[in-house]
Design a protein that fits this description.
binds fe (ii) ion, 6 helices, about 250 residues, Metallo-beta-lactamase, Chain A, single chain, alpha/beta
């Protein structure tokens, strides 16, 4: 949890008992609450966790205004539409997903902001894992989706992914943020909660400052990563804000 002047971040882990058959495991969702108004947003909700997340929101006395997506996920179905049905939130995708997504209420392009109470969340286009990936910044923190992980980065071989674009997104945009900016990733496979931009500049395995673009692209293009198990269901559903096609 990070506490600043205006907001509190609650990290919502994905508790998945069947990790062997369902690779949504280790997805991270985030509840960001404005401290004074109690207005809140949820970032990258997972459909299976919606009841838990709404219970936590209620326990904390928060009012959810927005369900925000960093990108069109391939590994799990977003909970955005179910949360909208239950609470009336507005669904927000990054501007890069416009044209690919139906069912969003708003697309947030680079430098555009959402306000909830005294808290302002700003979009930063960070394509590369997918062509439409967007990170979201708060003062002192950034939600990087699958662009930048703790010590790693998302795959670049699916959904219009590009190692070249990912390198530029991380090095020119995310690494331009202050070193003490807290990094909240879209996944972590080792139980870590957050990092900082300064740590990743130094210790990220593929994107630390000693690695050049050519080396990074070569490393990414050499990787062989299995297809996400749920991909053929998840991508169409997430292009429809988490509604299963036909429902
Ligand atoms: Fe992803």
């Amino acid at each position: 949890m990070a506490i600043t002047d205006t907001y509190v971040v609650t990290v919502l882990l994905d508790v998945n008992e069947r990790q062997d058959v369902d690779d949504r495991a280790e997805s991270r969702s985030y509840l960001v609450a404005d401290r004074t108004s109690g207005e809140a947003v949820i970032i990258d909700a997972v459909i299976e966790n919606v009841e838990r997340d709404l219970r936590i929101t209620k326990e904390l006395g928060l009012t959810l205004l927005f369900a925000i997506e960093t990108h069109i996920h391939a590994d799990h179905i977003t909970g955005a539409s179910l949360i909208k049905e239950r609470t009336g939130v507005q669904i927000v995708y990054g501007g890069g997903a416009k044209g690919a997504v139906t069912g969003a209420d708003q697309f947030l392009f680079e430098d555009e902001a959402l306000r909830f109470g005294h808290t302002v969340l700003t979009a930063l286009a960070t394509p590369g894992h997918t062509d439409g990936c967007t990170s979201y910044m708060l003062p002192g923190a950034v939600f990087t989706g699958d662009a930048l992980f703790i010590r790693g980065n998302g795959r670049t071989d699916l959904q219009g992914g590009s190692a070249e674009k990912l390198f530029d997104s991380v090095r020119k945009k995310l690494f331009a943020l202050p070193d003490d900016t807290i990094v909240y990733p879209g996944h972590d496979y080792q139980g870590r909660v957050s990092s900082t931009i300064g740590e990743e500049k130094q210790f990220n395995e593929r994107l630390n400052l000693s690695i050049n673009k050519g080396t990074f692209v070569e490393m990414m293009n050499r990787r062989k990563t299995p297809r996400p198990v749920k991909m053929d269901i998840a991508i169409p559903a997430n292009m429809n804000a988490g509604r299963m096609v036909g429902s």
